[in-house]
Write a structure and sequence with these properties.
This protein is 27% helix and 25% strand. It is α/β, with parallel strands linked by helices and 346 residues long. It has two domains: 12-200, TIM Barrel; 236-342, Beta Barrel (Lyase, Ornithine Decarboxylase, Chain A, domain 1). The protein has a seven-stranded antiparallel sheet with strand order 10-9-13-7-8-12-11, with no helix packed on it. The radius of gyration is 24 Å and the shape is elongated.
Length: 346
């Protein structure tokens, strides 16, 4: 097992045991749960112990306020950690966390220069909440982010506020990685930098939500028709419990089994006569209860599944399907189980 380079939000309180034996890597981590409970002495102590036990692991987390710096400094003094310091990324933001304006971001960079516990390693941002899935506005969005990042970096470097190379630049990257990557790479002649994409779901891909973005990316990258692209890998297999009226089947999976935060899951396969067959285009899921899915179709256009048949649902956006299962089977192209993954949520 290897550690993906694009882990999004692991928590220091449980990250340590899962890093045992993993290779050296970089992992930018958002500062966890500060608004709810603040960093504790135990959080910082474990972070320091993690770095000492795994010398090849490079960790950095996000900061976006003086309040966070003050909170960490107060705990740090109690730890007596001496000259040891932890890397952080200044987080720029708009809709969610992150510094909104250039001036406060530069002021926080200045404050980090004298912080007893933290060292500025670079800048991070998240563009995903502003993406629309159309090339012209998304390209303009990334030009805006590039201007923000480069302007802040220029002032930080001019004042000598960062003294480590390569500096880290980190963007979200799930929906626009072809446009985000050039922002992280910079231009020839600039300070050496390491670009880090924090794509949220690295194990599989979306059947619908990011699938739509991927189609636009393939067009931008001129991917030839039929050329392999990102393919969705997560399927939730169900069984038809009842067909109580024409055009309706009730499946034995619901909100407890499959994600629905970015649209209903869609039928992708069914087993018919013992064979895996693509689900008809006219099949659609129109709702979920806790343990049931409503599969509908127009009987005048296509046939529906029979009671007892199995139907595979593809989550529109897979992330919140993972927290519903402690164990998932990994299958090959012939549907033979060849491995398994386990999930571990704090």
């Amino acid at each position: 097992m290897t550690v993906p380079d694009d882990v999004d939000t692991p928590r220091p309180g449980w990250l340590g045991p899962w890093l045992k034996g993993f290779p050296a890597r970089q992992s930018p981590l958002p500062l966890p749960d500060v608004a709810q409970r603040g960093w504790t002495l135990a959080d910082l102590a474990e972070l320091l112990d993690l770095r000492r036990r795994h010398a090849g692991v490079e960790l950095a987390f996000f900061v976006d306020s003086q309040a966070q710096l003050d909170l960490i400094a107060a705990h740090w003094a109690k730890l007596g950690a001496g000259e040891d310091r932890v890397d952080v990324l200044l987080e720029l933001g708009t809709s969610r966390c992150g510094l909104r304006e250039h001036g406060p971001a530069l002021a926080l960079a200045r404050a980090l220069q004298h912080h007893p516990a933290l060292r500025l390693r670079g800048i991070g941002f998240y563009e995903g909440l502003q993406v629309v899935g159309e090339t012209a506005p998304d390209h303009a969005l990334m030009q805006h982010w590039q201007a923000r990042v480069e302007a802040l970096l220029a002032d930080i470097e001019a004042e000598g506020l960062i003294d480590v190379q390569p500096l880290w630049l980190s963007g979200g990257g799930s929906a626009l990685f072809d446009l985000v990557a050039p922002v992280l790479a910079g231009r020839p002649g600039q300070t050496r930098r390491l670009g880090l994409l924090r794509s949220g779901c690295y194990v599989c891909h979306d059947h619908a939500h990011y699938g739509r973005y991927m189609q636009v990316m393939d067009e931008r990258m001129r991917t030839p028709p039929g050329e392999p692209s990102l393919q969705p890998a997560l399927e939730v297999w169900t069984q038809v419990l009842s067909c109580p009226e024409p055009g309706l089947a009730l499946l034995n999976a619901g909100r407890r089994d499959v994600s629905f935060d970015q649209g209903w899951p869609g039928p992708v396969w069914h087993l018919h006569g013992g064979q895996r067959v693509k689900a008809p285009a006219g099949w659609r899921v129109t709702g979920l209860n806790d343990q049931h899915a409503y599969l509908r179709w127009d009987p005048a256009e296509c046939d529906g599944p029979a009671v007892g048949e199995r139907v595979a649902l593809g989550p529109s956006h897979p992330c919140t399907t993972f927290d519903k299962w402690a164990w998932m089977a990994v299958v090959d192209d012939d549907d033979r189980v060849i491995d398994a993954i386990t999930t571990h949520f704090a």
